[in-house]
Prior knowledge:
By secondary structure, this protein is of the alpha+beta class.
Amino acid sequence: MYVGRFLVAAPGLAAYRVSSRSFPNRKVIERDGSLTVVPTGDAEPTDNPYVSYNCVRGVARADEGDEQVAVIGNGSHVDPVAEKVGMGYPARDALASALLALDYEKDDYDTPRIAAVVAADTAFIGTVRKDALVVREVDEPTLVATYGKDDPEPFALEAGTADTAARELYDHAFEHAISAAGVAVDGGGVETAIHNGE
């Protein structure tokens, strides 16, 4: 089954996978403290604005004594969500306002935007589709994808670390895996991991 890009989030743990039929020549790299999806060296040049973006950003929550949280998502909305969290917006409001402002991707498929804000003890997941904006607090691993599974649903994530979460999502049976990122959040901060299938 092909579900496109997807993420799984729970309190303290999340992972994101790039899956693509159209742009397979991409990878996740660490850049300036964020995890960023970029074209590989052999990728065809493109001016598509949805190909490269920050998929994971750690940020200190101004409203919670600088508690570190992670913002995860499938596009340029990750940055404004992180900025709003850093300014003190509650996670739910940061997700809702950024997703509503940027709306779904205006491509041939009306691709939904998906995102999550994960703290050590809480997690919120959201999506904006052509027909809805959905933001929910979740207390167990929850999946949302761009196609076919664009409404949050429980997901059996077995991983316990950023690295194992990235590998588990990369190896999942959903089709056309390209790359994956994992995130673990605890009192010590945000830990990230990358799995590019190598």
